[in-house]
Amino acid sequence: MIPAARCPLRRYRAAMDPLPYLAGYPADVQMRVRALRDDGRLGDYLARRYPDPHAIRNDRQLYDYVQALKDRYLRQSTPLHKAIYDGKLQVLKHALGTHTTISRVQGGRLKANREIRIASVFREAPAAFLEMIVVHELAHLKESDHNRAFYNLCTHMSPDYHQLEFDLRLYLMHQEATPAASG
Asked: What single string gives the DSSP state of each residue in 88-121?
C-alpha cells in the first residue's frame, strides 16, 4: 500500500477538496481532518472534546465575561467600553471577532472607546471556543499585530490556545458542512 502522503490519487483529491480553514496546515494534518469529515466523525470528535456549552447569551453577560478575563490578565491595559455579539461579522472572511478603538472629540480632548465584537456563531459554540476568541481579542488590547508577543500573551491567558484555535477551525468547518448536509 502506498503511504497517504505519496499517493497521487489522494493528493489529487486533496487538491480538489481544499479545506479553507486549514490552508496553512501540513498536508498530513489536512488529510486526517478530511478523513474525519468524510467518515462523518468530525462532529463526534468535537462533541467529545468540547461537551460544555456556555450560558453567555446576551451582550451584558458577554461584557461581564470579557471584563472578568480582562481584569484577571490585563488589569493595566486600557479600559474596555463595550463587548457585544455581532451578527454582521462574516466567518467566511475570517472575522470571528474584532477589536476597535473609536475616537471622538469631546470638548478639547480626544476620547477613545475600546470595543470588542464577537461573531454571533459563538453564542451557541462550546465554552472553550468563546474563551479562545475572547482571549484573542483581548490580546489585541496590548499587541495589535499577530506576532510572537501576541501569541505569548494568548497562551498566558489560555495555555491551550493553539489547540483551541485549531479545533475552532474544525468546528467552523463542521458548522459550514452541517446545514448543507441537512438541507
From this structure: T--GGGT-SEEEEEEEEEETTEEEEEEEEEEEGG
